[in-house]
Amino acid sequence: MSTNVIKNYKKKYKFFSKNFKKGNFCEFFKKKIDKKFSIYSRFTLHSINAKNEKKLFSHINKQKNIEYFFIETRTTQDEFYGVGEKVGKNEYISNHYRRFIEPRDLKKKVSKKFKIIYFKQSKSFAVYKKYKPNVLRIIAKRRTT
User: Fold this and answer.
1) Taking a C-beta distance cutoff of 8 angstroms, is the pair 68, 60 a contact?
2) Is residue 120 a part of any domain in this protein?
3) Domain count, the chain
4) Which of 46, 92, 103, 122 could form a disulfide with 84 if both were Cys (CB 3.0 to 4.6 A apart)?
5) Among 139, 135, 127, which Cα is nearest to 100's?
6) Which residues contact 86 (CB under 8 A, 6 or more apart)?
């Protein structure tokens, strides 16, 4: 998380304040985490390229103590898909970089180590002013075997 986000969350969520960490999301799970934890990834997957996503999932899949994986990300059905300069597969730069996620592909990746317990796309998950991005929401529980 960024410094500003951590600062705001520490004020808002005092009980969890020691749990917010600054760092590179793709590298954070590289080191073994010994206690149980869950991952909340909101609008992070579509902000990294496919190479970093692969690295991220490799690190996450090696972690044994993850309980849940919560994901919200923009999809290829989003209103901004195709807007801006194309820089790669499903990747565009307009006012900033976005990589639009193909829901079925992400479902396959998550399903390797997690049981999907909720999988839905909606334009009502992340309404901001006049924008209604097509967001995929996943809740997944770590498989025990």
Assistant:
1) no
2) yes
3) 1
4) 92
5) 135
6) 92
Tokens read off for 117: 């317990």
Instruction: Give the per-residue pLDDT at 131.
Output: 86
- Distance (Å, whole) CA 20 – CA 30: 17
Q: Provide the CATH number for the domain around residue 130.
A: 3.40.50.150
Identity of the amino acid at 24? N
What the block records as the tokens of 46 is 């579509």
Q: Which residue has the tokens 């829901």?
A: 103
**Domain-embedded: residue 102:** yes
Residue 92 has a pLDDT of: 96
H-assigned helices in the chain: 3-12, 25-28, 50-62, 103-111
pLDDT tens-digit profile of 83-105? Answer: 999 999 999 999 899 999 999 99
